[in-house]
Design a protein that fits this description.
- By secondary structure, this protein is an alpha+beta fold.
- It is built from seven helices and four strands; from the N terminus they run αβββααβαααα.
- The chain has helices at about 15-25, 85-95, 105-110, 130-135, 145-155, 160-165, 165-170; strands spanning about 35-40, 55-60, 80-85, 115-125.
- The two termini are about 25 Å apart.
Length: about 170
């Protein structure tokens, strides 16, 4: 579990932990990259801080759950993250390329995506134990939010990225 030092939240930590444990249990034996949970929050609404840094995230729906979520469950609010970067990085990319490049592999894997530009990374992450190996395997990673989470999200759909990042070796039995 990774938490920011200045965390103030109305979201119960036990709810996050419970949600992560249920989701992680559903990926056991799955060919996907199993088990993390991150928190992003909307920057539009009641408590807006003008000029606050935002993130560009692309999400897709999670597969339907076989178990109906209990009242108060966070499950209806979960999405699968497939791309994440800061809005500053996104602006640099679009300025350099004069467009927003979206890979065909992303659209082939996830035909229905949702692009969000008004969210902010809360820097709250629940990771499985193997992420420490992932970090050690990739010493150039500087940031949890941009590097670890961003590359992991892309590795779920981008061909050739799993072996390049060493995830195939880390996750092999």
């Amino acid at each position: 579990m990774v938490l920011p030092c200045d965390l103030i939240s109305e979201l119960a930590g036990t709810s996050l932990l419970e949600t992560w444990m249920v989701q992680a249990a559903g990926t056991i034996g799955s060919p996907t990259l199993p088990g993390a949970l991150g928190v992003w929050f909307p920057t539009k609404g009641e408590h807006v801080v003008k000029g606050e840094e935002t993130n560009f995230v692309i999400t897709t729906q999670l597969p339907p759950s076989t178990v109906f979520p209990h009242p108060g469950s966070l499950r209806p609010n979960l999405s699968k993250l497939v791309y994440a970067t800061t809005t500053d990085t996104l602006n640099d990319i679009t300025e350099d390329k004069k467009c927003l490049p979206i890979r065909h592999g992303l659209l082939r894997k996830h035909g229905r995506i949702r692009m969000l530009t008004t969210t902010r990374d809360a820097h709250i992450y629940l990771f499985p134990y193997w992420v420490l190996d992932f970090i050690n395997q990739n010493p150039t990673f500087d940031s949890i939010g941009e590097d670890i989470v961003g590359w992991w999200a892309k590795a779920t759909w981008q061909n050739g990225l799993v072996p390049k990042l060493g995830l195939d070796k880390i996750l092999s039995p």
